[in-house]
Amino acid sequence: MPGMNTIVDQPGALHVLEHVFGYAGFRGQQEAVVEHVAGGGDALVLMPTGGGKSLCFQIPALLREGTAIVVSPLIALMHDQVSALVEAGVSAAFLNSSLDIETARTVERDLHEGRLDLLYVAPERLMTPRFLDQLDHLRDTRQLALFAIDEAHCVSQWGHDFRPEYLQLSILPERYPSIPRIALTATADRQTREEIRTRLRLEDAREFISSFDRPNIRYTITEKQDARRQLLSFIREECLGEAGIVYCLSRRKVEDTANWLCEHGINALPYHAGMSSEQRAEHQTRFLREDGIVMVATIAFGMGIDKPDVRFVAHIDLPRSIEGYYQETGRAGRDGLPAQAWMAWGAQDVVQQRRMIDESEASEQFKRLARNRLDVLVGLVEATTCRRQHLLAYFSEQAEPCGNCDNCLSPPQTWDATEAARKALSCVYRTGQRYGAGHLIDVLRGELTEKVVERAHEQLSTFGIGAELDEKRWRTVFRQLVARELLAVDHERYNALTLTEHARPLLRGEAEFMLRVESERSRSRGKRRSAARLEIPGGIPTTLFDRLRAWRTETARERNVPAYVILNDATLREIAIHRPETLSALSGINGIGDRKLEAYGEAILRLVEETV
C-alpha cells in the first residue's frame, strides 16, 4: 500500500488535518508543534490527555519524507493507534510480540521498502541490533522521517510509570543526529520535564506546554464511609450504562469490588498484575470494544488507553500523588464531552500510604519526595476552594474558580484557621526555615523532644503557643499552607519548610485562612447536576444518536476494531444534531476525513434519512 505522502495532493498541515483526520482546524499549540517538527526541529510536548498529542507527530510524519518511528510502551496503545490510522487511510503498522513471525517479516519488508508512513515499536525492540540496522538503512536512503517518543514521562525514575528501557533512547541523537525527535507526555512537573530533557538528550528541544486544564471533567472528592456503596450510588445516579474506570490500591480489593458491582447490576471487570496476561488482555479488549464496561483496576491498568468515551474515573483509595491522580482522572472524557472524576478518601488512606512509603526499599531521598507528593495530594482533598485551581496550581498554572467541581457547586463548611496559620508561619521563621512539619508541630505544641531541647527551641516565643490543636489538625494546617503556596518545601534540605512571598498578607493581618471542617459523617450532598451524561440539545431526539451507536458497534465488530476507531461519540453527537443530508455536508462533521466519508458516508446518510 503506498504511503499517505504519495496520495496527499497538497501536502500542507491543514490539508492533512482536514482530509485525513477530518478536522477543520488545529487546537491550542498543535499547529505550532506540527510546523516545528515537520521543519526538522526537536520538541518536548506537554499536552493533557484528550488534547490531541498524537496529531502532533502523526501529521509531521505525513508531511516529511519516509517513515516515522513511534516509540510506545504498550501493545494495546500501538494496536489502537494503528487501527485508527488505517481507518483514516494512513499506511501504519506496529512491531511487537503479538505478531507471528510471518506478519512481523511482512512489516519489516514494508519498512525496508518505504511503504510505511508510521511504525510503532516498543523501546526494547527499537534498541535491538537487528532493528537499529534497519533504521540505519532508512537513514542512509533518506527514508527516516522522525522519532516520536510517546509517554515520555516513563523515562523519569521518580515516577510510578518508570520504564528503564526508555533510558536507552538517549542513543538516538548520537546515531541519527539529523532526524528530528518529539517527546510527548500528558503529565510532568518541572522536575520530570528536566529528567526528560536530560535523559533523552533533548536539552535544545523547543518546549510546548499546553494548559493542564480539562474543563469537561468535574472533580468530586467525598469523605469515605462505605466506599463501595458510595461508588455504586455515584454510578447509578450519574453514569449508569457508561464506560468507566474504578481504581483500587490492592489486587484483592479490585477483585472484591468488581464482583460486588456485578452482583448489583453493574457490568464490571477486574484488572491487576496478579491476573494471567491472557485474562488481562481479554478484559482490556472487552473494555475497549464494548460499550458500558466498568473496569475495576490497580494502576497497572490505564497508561496508553485511547478509549475516548470513558465517562468517569473513580478512586475508592487515595492515589499516590497529584501526578498519578491527574494522569488517571485524565483518562475520562478524552473526546471532550462531559466526564467525572470521583474519589472517596479517608484518613486511614493517608496512614496506609505513609506506611507503604516508610516500609519500601527506596532511598531516603525518594521516600522524602514520595511523602511530600502525598502531602500535596492530601492538600487537594482537604481543600475548601476550587479543586481545579489547586490541581492546576501544582503544575504552575493559574486559574479562576471553575464553577464545576464539588467545592464550587456546594461550598464546604469551614473553620477560621487564620490565627493557627499565623502561628505556624511564625514558627517556621523563628526556627530558621530549616525544619519539616513534624519538628515544627512539636515546637508549637510544646513537646520537649530530644530534638527540641538539643536546638534550644523550647526557648523560642512560638514554643507551646499551639497546644490547643492536636497533631492531626496541625498537619492539616501545614499541608494547606504548602498547597496554597504560603510555604515551600525544600527537597534538598530534608523537606524543610520555607516562607514564600504569598505568606506576607497573612502575617500582616491582611488575609484570612479558612479550612474544611472534618466531620464524622458527610453532610447532605445537596443538589447534584449530572456531568457525565451525553446530552443532546433540547428538542432534538436521541433516537438517531442511539441508532448511530448501534451501527458503529456492528461495523466495529465486522472490522475487528474498537468502536471509537470507526467514529467517536463526539462525531456521532454532531451528526445527530446537524442531520447532514449530503456527503458534502457530512464531510464538514469533525472526525470524518476522506477515507471515512468514502467508507461510511452512504450508510450514515441512510440512517439520518430513515430516523425521524
Automatic annotation (TrEMBL):
Residues 227-377 form the Helicase C-terminal domain. SMART domains: DEXDc (SM00487), HELICc (SM00490), HRDC (SM00341), RQC (SM00956). One of its GO terms (molecular function) is DNA binding. InterPro entries: DEAD/DEAH_box_helicase_dom, DNA_helicase_ATP-dep_RecQ, DNA_helicase_ATP-dep_RecQ_bac, Helicase_ATP-bd, Helicase_C-like, HRDC-like_sf, HRDC_dom, HRDC_dom_sf. It catalyses: Couples ATP hydrolysis with the unwinding of duplex DNA by translocating in the 3'-5' direction. This is DNA helicase RecQ. The keyword Lipoprotein does not apply. Keywords: ATP-binding, DNA damage, DNA recombination, DNA repair, DNA-binding, Helicase, Hydrolase, Isomerase, Metal-binding, Nucleotide-binding, Zinc. Its cofactor is Mg(2+); Zn(2+). The gene is recQ. GO terms for biological process: DNA recombination; DNA repair; DNA replication; SOS response.
